[in-house]
Amino acid sequence: MKSFILKRAGASLITVFAVICLNFLIFRLAPGDPVKMMFTDPRVTAEQMQEVREKFGLDKPLGGQFISYVQRLAHGDLGISFWQKKPVTRVLAEKIPQTLILVITALGMAVILGVILGALAGWKTGTRLDTFIVSASLAMYSIPSFALGLILLLVFAYTLTIFPLSGMSTPASGLTGFGYLKDVAWHMVLPAFSIVMWYIGEFVVLTRSSMTDVLGQEYITSARAKGVKESGILWRHALRNALLPVVTMTGVNLGFAVAGVIEAETVFSWPGIGLLTYEAVMKRDYPLLQGIFLLFAVSVILANFVVDIIYGYIDPRIRVGE
Amino acid sequence: MKDFVKLLFSHGMGRMGIFIITLFLFASLFAPYLHTIDPHKSSSFENMLSPPSTQFWLGTDDLGRDIWSQIIYGSRISLTIGFVAAIVSVVFGTFVGLLGGFYGGIVDDVLSKIVDFFMMLPELPLMIILAAVLGPTIWNIIFVVSVVNWPTTARIVRSQVLSLKERPFIEASRSIGASDSFLMFKEILPNVVPLMFAQSVLMITLAIYAETILSFLGLGDPSLISWGQMLHFAFESGVMARSLWWVMPPIFAICSLIVSFTFLGTAITDVTNPGYKEARGL
Fold first, then answer.
1. CA Rg, chain B, in Å?
2. Does B121 contact A255 at a Cβ distance shorter than 8 Å?
3. Which of A12, A4, A18 is nearest to A304 (CA)?
4. Which band of pLDDT confidence, cut at 50, 70 and 90, is reported for residue B209?
5. Domains within chain B, CATH numbers bracketed
6. What are the backbone dihedrals phi and psi of residue B224, each rounded to the nearest 5 degrees, phi first?
7. CA-to-CA distance for A25 and B17, rounded, in angstroms?
8. I need a surface site. Which of A183, A262, B133, B279 has the fewest CB within 10 A?
9. Which of A150, A161, A197, A285 to mutate to probe the B interface, most B CBs <10 Å?
10. Can you name the residues that pair with A9 across neighbouring β-strands?
């Protein structure tokens, strides 16, 4: 197990390094001069631009620039955000908790609901219920979550005014403790729902196919022969084994999950990394965008690593196969 | 081929998908004849944000531009980007998968590592930084979408090629002195084509989605009005809730086009499944 973890950790580190290289290359090899993109004001003179170039080391050869980029990264220095005039690391750190709350809530709900619905569909394969669950989740899965988010926003926030329009809490409400938590939860309903509806399809389809595989196995027949109740077979015998592929998919799909967060946060102005991404795009804040990409990529790699380890614990065949 | 289309029509999702896609194809082909005006043309002040009328079937936006025309012409953008990006990413992915699967060894190792790396990256952030850095033109959007989507095809084609190259007909061909490129492109490639076709439908869906979300986030080509861009303008205008005729049509168009491609893709996967014909009694 130890060598398995070390191997995976090594592979993840190499991937992180590759991401750093890619991130560096995309922003350096881009057509156009980064300094000219930064200062569109015609009053900035050529000498001032040259000064900035020297200050950021942009006049040095690419190799030297890369080494100093990696050195600064190692010290947690991601540069200065053009727009907020603050270190990118600080801007990101302020937004991470809000995004984590939203992602964990939405992903957790999607997994639970998706597994239950998928298990039901797989259990009742070929029935009306199955067809309905599968086509509905396919449709939900293909609808971009920002489109669904906009509909939810227009219907439940603007028209019916049941839920708040934007943000994470009521401004200047003075709420504390439990009241504040309730307020945040209330603000989270719509963004979380738009993400859940998008993720859920994946889990439904996956659990369903894995469930149909498991139900064909002999131990299910033998459990039936022993007189185990049908509900016992479904939840205890079949679902337990059908869950293995679901665990892996959760990891694999985190990269995809990031998109849902960016979309939902933008539509509902939820103050996390996703909304920050949108603002950075609108302000063309390249250092911030670079930092955001690095943050998303590294978190996905990290999450995949964790899922791999968990999977190694659950299913010993994975470890032996290495 | 005729048989295949017939099978697709026997599938409920397939039928619905084909029907809606045909509608959009029709709209984009005959756009000038469908009660449209230049979607970029602003009208006079009193026609700004006007609700649906006989003159403007779906009303106008904040610059007085006709929504109906924007929707109809927008289908051209979505379909073009969808088809072109799908072809580019499927062709490139197939080429990589073919090379890796056929040669094996170090070539395959290196290519597989690259594919794994790209599949690990979060797609949307990668598309965002590429589009932001390269600049928002329609060709860059197509490039960005293809960069993100080719690896899945490469992976699927590779595993198909691995099993194909062990088949006797390849061995036979090789023994009479066929060159590597002949084996790859004349013997193996034709057997991968059905897979490429199914993969293309999936890629079209992803490409349409990608263009829409990039445009919605403000990275669309400023010289074109796509559905995603309509939503971007509406969202930024702050009057979205008071002008539902402006927001609802693009949302509806995006959802129905994407869902119908997804349904078509599902139908193709189902229909090519060997058990399908028997289950239907065909």
1. 22
2. yes
3. A12
4. very high
5. 18-31+75-257 (1.10.3720.10)
6. -125, 155
7. 41
8. B279
9. A150
10. none
Question: Which residues, at least 6 apart from B222, have a Cβ–Cβ distance to it below 8 Å?
Answer: B136
Q: Enumerate domains of chain A plus CATH numbers.
A: 96-284 (1.10.3720.10)
A152 lies within 8 A of chain B by CB:
no
**Residues shown for chain B:** 282
How far is the alpha carbon of B198 from chain A, nearest alpha carbon, in Å? 16
Query: Closest approach of chain B CAs to the CA of A203, in angstroms?
Result: 16
Q: Does A30 contact B133 at a Cβ distance shorter than 8 Å?
A: yes
Q: Is A37 on the interface with B (CB under 8 A)?
A: no
Suggest the residue from B120, B201, B246, B256 to mutate for an interface test with chain A (most A CBs closer than 10 A): B120
Q: Is A138 strand, coil or helix?
A: helix
Half-sphere exposure of A299 (CA within 13 A, CB side): 19
CB-CB under 8 Å, A284 with B251: no
Q: What is the DSSP string of chain B?
A: -HHHHHHHHHSHHHHHHHHHHHHHHHHHHSGGGSS---TT----GGGTTPPP-SSSTT-B-TT--BHHHHHHHHHHHHHHHHHHHHHHHHHHHHHHHHHHHHH-HHHHHHHHHHHHHHHHS-HHHHHHHHHHHH-S-HHHHHHHHHHHHHHHHHHHHHHHHHHHTTSHHHHHHHHTT--HHHIIIIIIHHHHHHHHHHHHHHHHHHHHHHHHHHHHTT-S-TTS--HHHHHHHHHHHS-GGG-HHHHHHHHHHHHHHHHHHHHHHHHHHHHHSTHHHHHHT-
The tokens describing B48, both together, are 């700004």
Percent of chain A past pLDDT 90, that is, above it, reads 21
Please give the Cα distance from B220 to B111 (Å, whole number): 32
pTM above 0.90, yes or no: no
Which one-letter amino acid corresponds to residue A179?
G
Q: In this complex, do A154 and B240 lie within 8 Å of one another by their Cβ atoms?
A: yes
Cα separation, B201 vs B269, whole angstroms: 10
State the CB neighbour count (10 A cutoff) for residue B73.
Answer: 23
Residue among B279, B234, B222, B264 nearest B77 (CA)? B222
Burial of B100: CB neighbours in 10 Å, binned 0-12, 13-18, 19+: buried
CB-based contact B255:A147 (threshold 8 Å):
yes
Lowest mean pLDDT among A85-99, A160-174, B138-152: A160-174
Contact A297 B133 (CB under 8 A): no
Token look-up 């991937």 returns A15
Note whether A301 contacts B120, CB cutoff 8 Å: yes
Nearest CB to B133; choose among A15, A26, A254: A26
Q: Looking up tokens 């968990």, which residue turns up?
A: A310
The more confidently predicted of residues B63 and A301 is A301
